[in-house]
Specification:
alpha/beta, two-stranded antiparallel sheet, about 30% helix
Length: about 230
Amino acid sequence: MESARPCVAVLLAGGVGARAGLGMPKQFADLHGRTILERSLAALHDHPAIEGVLVVMAPGFVDAAQVVTGSYPRTLAVIEGGAERSDSTVNALRWLDAQGHGDADVLVHDAARPLVDARIISDCVAALGTHAAVGVAVRSSDTILRTDVSGRIVDVPPRSELWRAQTPQGFRAGVLQAAYDVALADPAFVATDDCSVVLRYLPDVAVHVVEGDDRNMKVTGPLDLAIAERLLGT
């Protein structure tokens, strides 16, 4: 069952990509003939379930991003991101609410995952028909160790319970906004993704897992870029 609500996407491209070592935001790195930003944008923009895409860009690079988005008419806007990933999400939610999208379903995707495919997007949209929050993940094939600050192993969680998080992550916009409203009142608030904000600050809201794909990798450094190039060439 697909959601009866409209679905919009937020493409987070607010990082400066310092770890990539490319001398520029990695979103503008060439990946098999198109920038990483354009590949991620196209995946969302061209999906029939997505009504529009809001791009959240690193400060100082909005104009450059608008050159890329000019060929994608269902781009809603390009806005500046914040200092942290969570700040960029909050900026996006506020913009969407001001533009009348406060009742929509929202998919939040990292621009650094340019190989996301239509199946994952479709599954997220469908899951939002029955769930208020959705995360994409793949099962961990590695054993994960938990250590203390000294580096001593203190726990080895069962691998069958462990997943590696990906994006997009999907939410009913009002649910994600409510989670951030509570989070921003917490002086100790810190988050690396949006599902964790819902999980921590709206504990009564279940976060459903949608199966991801190993190809939906995050491009962080030059090695990741080379792997993504190879995958696109196969």
